[in-house]
Amino acid sequence: MASDLVQEEHESGSNISTISARVNLLTEIVEFFENNFPEIVDNFLGLIGVVAIIMTLSLNISILCFGVTLFIIVVYGLSSKKTLCFKQTLQ
Description:
Layout: H1 2-12, H2 16-57, H3 59-90
């Protein structure tokens, strides 16, 4: 896949630094789908499994867990931009 990208970029007249940056980006995307994406799916399915088990034990506790999960997702969504800014500042 990377060799096809390099060939297309050479044919279009891109310079070496542009080709190198695009190949590195492609490598990062492939690494994400190989390493991080399965972990995200696994964690999400684990969370659903835990909530399902808790639902069989107690409906009130499962509603509370669902509410806490939604709260965490909202907090993460609201703070993700600021977290990324802090991370970029530290690098």
